[in-house]
Amino acid sequence: MTKLLGVIGDPIAHSLSPLIHNGWFRDLGFDASYEAMQVADGTFGTALRTLESRNILGVNVTLPHKQAALEASHTVSQRAAGIGAANTLTFAENGKWHADNTDAPGFVSAIGNLDPDTDKAVIFGAGGSARAVVFALVQADIDTVILNRTRAKATALANDLGAEQTHAGAIDQYKDYIEGATIVINTTSAGHSGFLFELPGGRQRRFFDLSYGSVAAPQLDHASEMGWRAQDGLGMLVGQAAHSFQSWFGEWPDTESALRRCEMAVRAAL
């Protein structure tokens, strides 16, 4: 019988996750189907109970349900508990939901080598996406500064997930902070409103934007023009999907083919 998987969110029609996972199912000959599932805020628990009556194997979870997914699960991985949110649920044979968070290892897969002796990271934003990034950087022992419009929120995140080398600041002073950074990570939704962070010369340092497509293009183009090694969020999207896939099927999928499919879809939408 065909196994059902999917991604739950609101909105969800834009999601590339069905493209990623169904592509892997075709490549590997798996009898499974992955669907985008529109679930309104506040109804996540009801949606899970409905899925339990189907041949569900697991789901990914995106905004605004990541905290609800954690709270609705019967067992929780140490990683999801540490981040305070879940993006991957597995429905076990005992009828219980297990929560994990693959955003953090997905970020690490995308960003590549992190060197605690030389790397210093600056993060723009202190929202849900930033939590997984901060968690990953702390695990890698990277000096990190979190910058947010509301400094108190950045401080709370640093205190919640950080270590001695994790600090907070005001985002309007970002130019001062990034002078000493080797990696700058934009987790904000500034691109949706057309805002552009004006960057100094990059000197081939890394600029990572969790967004992709037309939303991220102006910021990434600017970063490249200023000499940064600019990277969008598609690699993290595919990376977190691959870690979810491995947790469900015990097999690591072809991330390069998935990334190519995503890049083609994004180019077609521009």
Explain what this protein looks like in three dimensions.
By secondary structure, the chain is an alpha/beta fold. It is built from eleven helices and twelve strands. The strands form two sheets. The chain has a six-stranded mixed β-sheet, with helices on both faces. Strands 9-8-7-10-11-12 form a six-stranded parallel β-sheet, with helices on both faces. Helix 5 (103-111) crosses helix 6 (128-139) and helix 5 (103-111) packs across helix 10 (234-249). The chain is globular, with a radius of gyration of 18 Å. The termini are far apart. The mean pLDDT is 96.
Give the helix/strand layout:
Layout: E1 3-9, H1 17-28, E2 32-38, H2 44-52, E3 56-61, H3 66-72, E4 75-76, H4 78-83, E5 88-91, E6 97-100, H5 103-111, E7 120-124, H6 128-139, E8 143-148, H7 151-161, E9 166-170, H8 174-178, E10 183-186, E11 206-209, H9 217-225, E12 229-231, H10 234-249, H11 255-269
Parallel strand pairs: 1-2, 1-3, 4-6, 7-8, 7-10, 8-9, 10-11, 11-12
Antiparallel strand pairs: 3-5, 5-6
Helix pairs in contact: 1-11, 5-6, 5-10, 10-11
Shape: globular
Average pLDDT score: 96
Number of separate strands: 12
**Physical arrangement of strands within the biggest beta sheet:** 2-1-3-5-6-4
Largest β-sheet summary: 6 strands, mixed
Number of helices: 11
Approximately how much beta-strand content do the residues carry?
A: 15-25%
Q: What structural category do the secondary elements indicate?
A: alpha/beta
Helix content: 40-55%
Low-confidence stretches: none
Q: End-to-end span in angstroms?
A: 38 Å
- Helix and strand string, N-terminal first? EHEHEHEHEEHEHEHEHEEHEHH
- Computed over alpha carbons, the radius of gyration is 18 Å
